[in-house]
Amino acid sequence: MTRSADEFLICVIARMLDGAGHVAVGAASPIPGAAALLMRELTHGRLLVSMIHGRANNPFTDGGREVFDCAGQGRIDVFFLGGAQIDGEANINLVGTGDYPAVDTRFPGSFGSAYMYFVVPKVILFRHEHTRRVFVPKVDFISAPGVSPPGVYRPGGPKALVTGLAVFSFDKDSARFRLESVHPGHTVEEVLDNTGFDVDVREDVPTTPDAEPDRLALLRSTIGAEVADVYPDFAARVLGAAAAGAESPGAG
Amino acid sequence: MTSHETVEGLAARVPDGALLAIPPEYSFVPMAMVRALIRRAVRDLHLLAVPTGGLAADMLIGAGCVKTMEAAAVSLGEAGPAPRFTEAVTTGAVVMRDSTCPAVHSALQAAEKGVPFMPLRGLIGSDVLKHRDDWTVVDDPLGEGGGPIVLLPAIRPDVAVFHSPRADTGGNVWVGRRRELVTMVHAAKTALVTVETVQETDLLADEATAAGTLPALYVTAIAEAREGAWPLALAGHYDADAEHIRAYARQAKTPDGFRGYLDRHVFAPAVQAAS
């Protein structure tokens, strides 16, 4: 079965959610969102998925603060963050490039990252674009730091990084990424050439397993409609026809 | 006693220089009121997005109404970057006070409780904290878990605005599960609310609706505005006009394009008559 790059990444991220209890997904995360809904389907609902900006799949009733309070108590196991820039110590920049506040390029802002990165045990960093423009030696603005000194309350942090080329793990003690697998059709050299910081590389780096056909089928049928509730444009573009049946729910 | 007025009347109640709190894109955004504020040419607003901003913030900034902007992020969601915000912050025309979502919620909760500050986890080691001279890091004074913790001063907006599906004649306003609006209004000195419709039935009379109702004691004034959230969605009532928002995102990339948008959708006589 042919698959798109987005569908492949959804399947890669879905595998990382195996065994998790509760995953929350934010506003700008359609690929992680689709991965979470796919994994919920595969676990027959054992994985709890909270889409914090949708109506369907959004369990929160106490306003915008609830997801953060929930995470602060340790009730959320997995969260996703990205970055306009990400550096080798897993610092992320969602604010802008150049000399803040007089930035050259401005991005939307840090959202909840400066908090969620600290309190959610497994944060998966996701950025499709894998270039030296994104993976820089040092971010221009730290929306949230990758590691914290001893004494700072930090039960959470980055555990993995998924890009359009590869999968990395992150070790908080050494504050370094390790290349774990390279996506089909790409090479270790290509990954390192496009990464602006030094990383560890595991021996005999394997190829990231391709999308499972049964999961792709599920994605295109059941999951597309659910994704469309939160990310209608993404669902229409990536998951095709499924989005057509995904009108918003009626009055409530 | 809640006053029942027109949208223009509500806009006239927002003074120049006010600290104005607005809801996030997914929660009852009062776009008819935003258009009225632009027509009234309000100036020097300190805009607080609770906790993120979108079309409302972008339009107010583009129209020259805003002096400072506090938010965890500003964007048009799937329609892309907020063009007027992006340009204004890059050129320094608007001073941006970068925050993070739970910091905005927590600072409003402090005001809601009438306490001077609220502690928040996270933040330490971020440049968000580094650039906020109003935030303080202290050692946990109770020793619970120890270590440093950030204190955020209470934020008490002068005015909070939102658009609800309905209010009752007594001035109680339905918010459903959009309880960030409750926190925002509790924290604010005044609340101005537009609604799709005003009903006779008391929202507090039935426990089922009472639980999702902001009581009139917090509500300064109400105005009816049909489709008052357009082109944004009003959850449970109408969807976002995605086509219109995408067109805005394109047109507002230049000052001229933005001005053209305002002429058609804010200043045109037919638009004013409709609100």
Write the layout of secondary structure elements.
The complex is a heterodimer of chains A (252) and B (275).
Chain A: H1 5-16, E1 22-25, H2 30-42, E2 48-51, H3 66-72, E3 78-81, E4 85-87, E5 92-93, E6 96-99, E7 102-106, H4 113-119, E8 122-127, E9 135-136, E10 158-163, E11 166-171, E12 176-182, H5 188-193, E13 200-201, H6 213-230, H7 232-238
Helix pairs in contact in A: 1-2, 2-6, 6-7
Chain B: E1 3-5, H1 7-12, E2 19-22, H2 31-39, E3 45-49, E4 52-53, H3 55-62, E5 66-71, E6 73-74, H4 83-91, E7 95-98, H5 101-113, E8 117-120, H6 127-130, E9 136-139, E10 148-153, E11 159-168, E12 173-174, H7 180-187, E13 190-199, H8 207-210, E14 213-214, E15 221-224, H9 242-251, H10 255-267, H11 269-274
Parallel strand pairs in B: 1-15, 2-3, 2-11, 3-5, 4-6, 5-7, 11-13, 13-15
Antiparallel strand pairs in B: 8-10, 9-10, 12-14
Protein architecture, described:
- The complex is a heterodimer of chains A (252) and B (275).
- Chain A contains 7 helices and 13 strands.
- Chain A is of the alpha/beta class and 252 residues long.
- Chain A has a 6-stranded mixed beta sheet with strand order 3-8-10-11-12-13, sandwiched between helices.
- Helices cover 28% and strands 22% of the residues of chain A.
- Chain A has one domain: Glutaconate Coenzyme A-transferase (3-Layer(aba) Sandwich), CATH 3.40.1080.
- Chain B is an alpha/beta fold and 275 residues long.
- In chain B, helix 2 packs parallel to helix 3 (55-62), helix 3 packs across helix 4 and helix 5 crosses helix 7 (180-187).
- The longest helix of chain B is centred in the middle third of the chain and has 13 residues, at 101-113.
- In chain B, 53% of the residues are buried.
Largest sheet of chain B: 8 strands, parallel
Helix content of chain B: 25-40%
What's the helix count of chain A?
A: 7
**H/E topology pattern of chain A:** HEHEHEEEEEHEEEEEHEHH
Order of helices and strands of chain B: EHEHEEHEEHEHEHEEEEHEHEEHHH
- Report the average pLDDT across residues of chain A: 91
Radius of gyration of chain B: 19 Å
Corresponding CATH architecture of chain A: 3-Layer(aba) Sandwich
Distance between the termini of chain A: 40 Å
Instruction: Report the C-alpha radius of gyration of chain A, rounded.
Output: 18 Å
Order of strands across the widest beta sheet of chain A?
3-8-10-11-12-13
How many DSSP E strands of chain B?
15
Q: In the CATH hierarchy, what is the architecture of the largest domain in chain B at level 2?
A: 3-Layer(aba) Sandwich
| Uncertain stretches of 5 or more adjacent residues of chain A | 241-252
The side-by-side strand order for the widest beta sheet of chain B comes to 1-15-13-11-2-3-5-7
Sheet having the most strands of chain A: 6 strands, mixed
